[in-house]
Amino acid sequence: MDTIIAYVTDNEEDNIKIYEQAKSVLRSGGLVAFPTETVYGLGADALTEEAALKIYAAKGRPSDNPLIVHIANVDALYELAEQVDERALKLAEHFWPGPLTMILKKKSIVPDSITGGLDTVAIRMPSHPVARKLIEMAGVYVAAPSANTSGKPSPTRAKHVIHDMQGRIDMIIADDTVDIGVESTIVDISGEIPMILRPGYVTKAQLENVLGEVEIDPAIMGSLAEGVTPKAPGMKYRHYAPEAQLTLVESRNGAEKVVEYINKMTREHQDKGKRIGVMAPKETAGMYVADVVIPVGSRDDEALAARDLYAALREFDECKVDYIYAESVSTKDVGLAVMNRLIKAAGHTIIDVED
Ligand code: TXA
Ligand code: MG
User: 157: CA distance to ligand 2 center in Å?
Assistant: First the structure.
């Protein structure tokens, strides 16, 4: 399949032509990848079963993993979801448009193929101007997972989407202003107490300010709390993962210990002819002896780490390293999302150098 690649520019007239083209693709049941403020999405008309099924095929995604439906105005909530209560409206008021996805009881209009057979639906109103304009102009609800091949890091640059999706989908809208860099926070409000299913840029504290008590899915916290020593066998599944095995390294006694450990492991691997990649904050990046060192964020700026995380993981693939080591980051604010993704990318391989 030929994939149209259209670059958004400052010329609004040209951009309108891009949206028109994307509209006709979506309306005829095709797939369009587009930027959002979190990561790139791979969109299809959410209410057309066959269109949604194409998403699973293009990504190689298991069909029981449900998709997020993207909307352009709050009224859409009433069309897609049952029981749009005060909590949903408050969340919409405070965080939409933006990086928050709500899980609500679904209406029957939402096809089962979108929700993986669940009786709930995930809904998000993105803030990225290209995403908004696309959804508005197309006049459809847009089902969109992240636009990566299933299991790979989500795309945060146009070249990532082109790499994964060229030849597999109808159109890619390219625009390099994806600036959050990790996927939206998912909060389930279909039950009594709201529960965070995936951490993101919108934090638990921010949600609690609006909703009162909010729980975090123990699967997220569990892996963080137990992750101090190498991996529980049952928890080894990889996601957001680069080709090379990634190991997370942390220490209670400061970064020097981490640097020392990683450099020791690096030399051992290099002696056997292996190439090593290291991902570290800018403060310590200069201390590593690895073949490829990618600075990501800084110790006191979790948002910066979020923005560059996936691009770094993909760069290691391009550089063909055999093993990757990454320093654990603070779980403050969006740092929790960064650690959650790193732990998954590492398949729960975490070394505490004190053990
Ligand atoms: O930032 C984002 O959310 C990006 C952009 C494109 O909007 N989208 C995204 O979609 O990350 P995806 O498909 O990669 O991740 C959606 C997650 C999956 O983990 C899926 O299992 C979960 O949302 N999900 C979707 N519907 C759900 C539901 N009804 N109940 C529980 N989880 C659900
Ligand atoms: Mg994804």
Answer: 15
